[in-house]
What does this fold into?
Amino acid sequence: MSSFPILDLVIGIIFIYFLLSIICSSAVELFLSIFKSRAGLLENWLKQIFNLPALDSEGKPLNVSVGQAIMDHCMVTALSKKGTSTSYIDAENFVSALLDKITIAPSGAGDTVEFPPANLAGYITAIQNSTLISGELKRTILIFANEAAQAALARSSTPASANNTAPVKSESEFFRDSLKNWFNSNADRLSGTFKRTKVFPLTIMVAIIMVISLNTDSIEICKYLYNNQAATKELATTAMNSFQNYQDQMDTLFKKDSAGNAATISELNVKTVQLKKDLDSLHDLDLPMGWKAKNVKDIKTFIDYLVKHLAGWLATILAIMMGAPFWFDILNKISNLRGTGPKPLSGDSADVKTN
It folds into this structure.
């Protein structure tokens, strides 16, 4: 147990914020996954920037935009239905689909599939003659192509070092890398737009609904924990015992996997077992949370209660908006102050430290 009751109080209130933030983040992620908000934003961007009519592999009209054709391309479509985008497109696959779709020439006679350009000069010619992208976009891609040609030329004219074992890039590889960087920069801007227009407003809405429905007043909770040291120690102990169990949950809920995908609905459901146990432990402590009949016995009493607890609710909402990863990191740092401090190093790490 900690010898500082105020430290237990801080750990307890942070743990409550952490649990509420997990609930809020899980609800937001579930909502966004069900309504495929990420995929919708990416689809809007593709259709907006590549809005001219597309051609099929034989050069015949497809009656869809180039952006739609890129989404339906075999390099990026995965298991998504035709006409819809996936939530994530790899930059390498996007470039392959983009170059395939914008270099198709209108068909002449017959149903012959045209071979794609074999080198950078062929791509430059095909893009210059393309009618599938706007003039501004055409000039942008041609700038990347010219820069790639110059970079390849400069690389080939530089004397090779005897210790340099790095593979020499071709001008086509420089070109593809430029297009990938362009796509990734746009994807980063889309992520910022997604957080600002989708995640942030939805998080505020969910936090307000949750705090009011649970009647979670930070001021009242702090008063209760300050005046009930036994409950405070029990809550702090629960927080420390649950700390390690949440490490895997944090990796699933708030980090992307190697493919850049967010947590799936099934993963979110699996990771709620420990959360339910901790919520039950909060209920057993009889914290001042939840509504009681005396608080809503008449309109005047209810309004007075709202005014009295508005500041505490607002504090809780602001705390939830900081996010579960923030409170998890704070809890991780404070846990080292509780008890005997950080865990000693072992093995080779300890030897290195002493030496």
